[in-house]
Fold Vacuolar protein sorting-associated protein 35.
Amino acid sequence: MYKETVLPRILEQVVNCKDEIAQGYLMDCIIQVFPDEYHLQTLETLLGACPLLQPSVDIKMVLARLMERLSNYAALSTDVLPEFFQVEAFAKLNSAIGKVIEAQEDMPIAGVVTLYSSLLTFTLHVHPDRLDYVDQILGACVKKLSGKGKLKDSIATKQTVVLLSAPLEKYKDIDTALKLSNYPHVMEHLDDTTSKEMANVLVQTILKNKTCISTDEKVEALFELMKGLIRDLDENLHDEFDAEDFKEEQNSVSRLIQMLHNDDPEEMLKIICTVKKHIVTGGPKRLPFTVPPLIFNSLKLVRRLQNQDENAPEEETSAIPKKIFQILNQIIEALSSVPVPELALRLYLECAEAANDSDLEPVAYEFFTQAYILYEEEISDSKAQVTAIQLIIGTLQRMHIFGVENRDTLTHKATGYSAKLLKKPDQCKAVYSCSHLFWVDDQDSIKDGERVLLCLKRALRIANAAQQMSNATRGSSGSVLLFIEILNKYLYFYEKGVTQITVASIQSLIELITTEMQSENKTADPAADALLASTLRYIQFQKDKGGAVGEKYESIKS
């Protein structure tokens, strides 16, 4: 009855009234009052009336409301979906929208995008598995936007964002969006600020759903969509630069880079190359955020290759790490444009350690050389120098790959840098740290007691000079903290069996510290008092142990 009598009669009245306000209102009433299944079965009749309405009637709103009702109906249950397939709802709605847009040549672009956005929402509810339909809608939208350049209308921009967000919300999987060939073409019409926001939505979707992007083609497509976040699209945007927002965006990009993964080393290498290509053009503000995660993701691959079957041919196992290290060198070099020498030095040392574990001596030596060049030429701040020296010493101490000549060269340089630090206390700490470079437990080839003793004696001389300077400038002898720290090093090496460290040398150092502590010129230092008390307690504890250790410590009078 509704199909054959009621609806045709009502539509006849609506078309014949010729009043644009009444027509819009009555069409809305028909859509809102009658049941969803009625609309579905009479879709052709209802859509056929739209072109007959007055030209000034807002048909896009009529169609948008109809599609919204049908979308909600489809979302209620999958049981109703066969009804949609039976009446070919998508084809009819798509055709009707095409005719309306064609008929109304002056329809604003916001109206066009709104219609396609409603159709897309409908399609995602009714045909979630038909990506070709989704891409077809995006393609039709691109066709209408072509030649229009960047969208300047805020409503059109907002609707375009809704259109692009719909597939992400539905599939919760960026992989699906990357399969839509027209998706990036729609994004091209967004202004730079909105494009950046949309890119951020993409990144957050990946992070939220922990999506793994595993091929270089997908990474290429994704980074092309994300270009608003990984490079400056517009030079003028620096005027509106917000440091906090920028930092948050770049941290999200960094997390995304860490999530890229493929079990196949060759494929993973391609992904690394693709990411490198995109991030090196990011500019000085972005590189400090994006370079470290790519370095560490690459080093993860190197470590993975180390743990693989050791029976594989050596050429096969070392070819990929060598390629990776070449790429890493280029990536860290890109940081020189920023410049952030402290960060670059840390990354060079990380790579050197990874090359050491991969048994690639020339590569490890080259990374150390680069780190030393940075230290000499770029790092001038005294605090940064102290940190850099400690990092260099710590990394070099863990290296086992170097031959005698290479190790001597690097060690000599490190001890030289330590002795040239600006402040005497910093010099002293760096020099006594260098003693560890000449005695490594698990390496028999690096056990040089003479040079350990030499370092510790040199540190004592520097500590003495520091005290004399304090006496000359402040009238007090200053803290004995440095002497106590050196005493701890003496005890460490004595326990390790360095024969050059004798009981007599430890005893004289304890006496020196005790004398200084009782001196009238001494500056009060609770930290020094606490450290000395702990050190003496430790000596007593070792004595009480008995056995070989107790015997060793017995002759030390504390």
Summary: The chain has a mean pLDDT of 88. The CA atoms of residues 543 and 551 lie 7 Å apart. DSSP finds 29 helices and no strands in the chain.
